[in-house]
Amino acid sequence: MLQHIYLNLVYNSKKAEVIKNFKNLEYLKSGDSRQKVAFYEIEKLGIFQKLEKYNPVLAGTIPIDIDVPESDLDVICACNNHSEFSKILIKYFETEDEFKIYSTKINGIKSTVAEFKTEHFTFEIFGQNIPTEKQYAYRHMILENKILEREGIEFKKEIRRLKSKGIKTEHAFAKLLALKGNPYEELLKLELTL
Predict the structure, then answer these.
(1) Contact by Cβ (8 Å): 147, 64
(2) I want to staple 79 with a disulfide (CB 3.0 to 4.6 A). Which of 14, 127, 140, 152 is the partner?
(3) Alpha-helix runs per DSSP H in 2-81
(4) In this structure, are residues 22 and 15 in contact, taking their beta carbons and an 8 Å threshold?
């Protein structure tokens, strides 16, 4: 019984460590060459320091190593004042190439988005009045990472192959997992089972 409890604690602490690593970017320094360049560019721009108040998290395919050459860097933020958040984004990033900022509704939720380009990446900084850990982008990334760990290298290769053909990430996962319906919603239903 005690051994079972210990193994559960070790397993749960490892799960927490993975999530913690996604929040502090250190994992990028020991990743593949693209992850290392992503770390360098994020640090060079000081994105996480400048947006610290908004609990930024790098989400998307680059953190979980299923990116394709055209993949961008998605930084999600929690903002409860979109006007203030917009001003901060303009203050720090408006001089970056092809900078644009706009507001939109995603799943009925007001979202502020800034986009710009650097030498190696297109950045998208995204803010919603939702804690970053509860935003779809973060939840999908954590779930997709768990699936990749469970399914193995061949599954990961097939995800990359589908993405290289232009299929969106969640659609690729849904296809390989034989999920029916809206891929974004169907994937989230797996949170309870993984």
Answers:
(1) no
(2) 127
(3) 2-24, 26-29, 33-45, 47-50
(4) no
pTM given for the model: 0.86
Q: Which two tokens stand for residue 106?
A: 């995603």
Residue 100 sits in a domain of what CATH number? 3.30.460.10
Helix or strand (DSSP H, E) at 57: strand 57-59
Q: For 104-128, how does the pLDDT look when each residue is reduced to its tens digit (9 = 90+)?
A: 998 899 999 999 999 999 999 999 9
Q: Whole domain around residue 159: which residue ranges?
A: 2-192
pLDDT digits (tens, 9 = 90+) for 37-52: 999 999 999 999 999 9
- Phi, psi for residue 121 in degrees, rounded to 5: -140, 160
Structure tokens at 164: 């290289």
User: Which DSSP string do the residues of 89-119 spell out, in sequence order?
Assistant: HHHHHTTSEEEEEEEEEETTEEEEEEEEE-S
Residue whose entry in the numeric block shows the structure tokens 């917009």: 86
Pairing of strands 57-59, 73-78: antiparallel
Taking the C-alpha atoms of 147, 133, 30 and 52 in order, what is their torsion angle to the nearest 10 degrees? 170
The pair of structure tokens assigned to 64 is: 């979980």
Contacts with 59 (C-beta within 8 Å, 6 or more apart), sequence order: 74, 75, 76, 135, 137, 138, 140, 141
8 Å CB contact between 111 and 78 = no
Inter-residue contact 85 to 127 (CB < 8 Å): yes
| Number of structural domains in the chain | 1
